[in-house]
Amino acid sequence: MILRFLEGQSQRIIFLICLVFTAIVGITDYLTGAEISFSIFYVAPIAVAVWYGTKRIGISMSIVATLIWLIAEKTFGGQYSNAAILYWNMLVRLSTFLIIAYLLSNLRHRLRKEEELADTDPLTGAFNCRAFYELVEKEIQRLRRYNHPFTIAYIDLDNFKMVNDRYGHSVGDELLQQIVLIIKTNKRNTDIVARLGGDEFVIMFLETGLHDSAIAVGKIVACMLDKMRQAELPVTFSVGVVTYEVAPNEVNQVIKLADDLMYSVKKKGKNAIAHIVWKGDDACLNNENISIQ
Fold first, then answer.
1. How many CA atoms lie within 13 A of 258 on its CB side?
2. pTM, whole model, 2 decimals?
């Protein structure tokens, strides 16, 4: 519960929380006197600052923790054979805190990189299939809870095999990268693009209904077609778009419905966008209910 709370906080809030915690440790350190060491407890707010904030906050908390310890140490009157020992101990503690902050920061950075790699298609940088399914599941739960629609656009590249056969796989790979770049450039920051395999991509427009998603998909497809014309490549796009106003039962149903709709476009001649609104009725896949753009 506490960890979830910390994950959702701004850097300023994280800093204030750690500052208060460090102050509490310092006060406790002062009240217990010189006989009981509290050095280890200063590490906790530093670790929280680095893990849930930034390395800079961790360094700041290391300095703050060292100063608070110094004040507590001087206030309760610890006895040293030489006055310089107090400040030597301060430097040792500061160095220890900074090393801990540095190591934790590097560990957190590596873990985040591994998480990104686990969720990312290595060729295009889009989300991979596994990560996308998890994100769709979250959006289904949001729809059930808040009744906010979302839209899935399933995109297949027509004649992509022809590009690979004629120009080679390196050109095909570059084309896939360009497609993702175009989508990322023209979508909102909150929208999600994933590569589900081969030449098939999917975009999820969060909290987006029929009208806005139709405009967004139309703009993205137009930009992709323009890029294909400039590159003189025989690629067009078959797109199945489903706006969900009622939460589907499972993630597979979400993907399958958009996939089936995309294939209906390919069967009718390719290079078009089919858009339906899902209201919990399979009948919406009937031809008379499909809007072709």
1. 24
2. 0.69
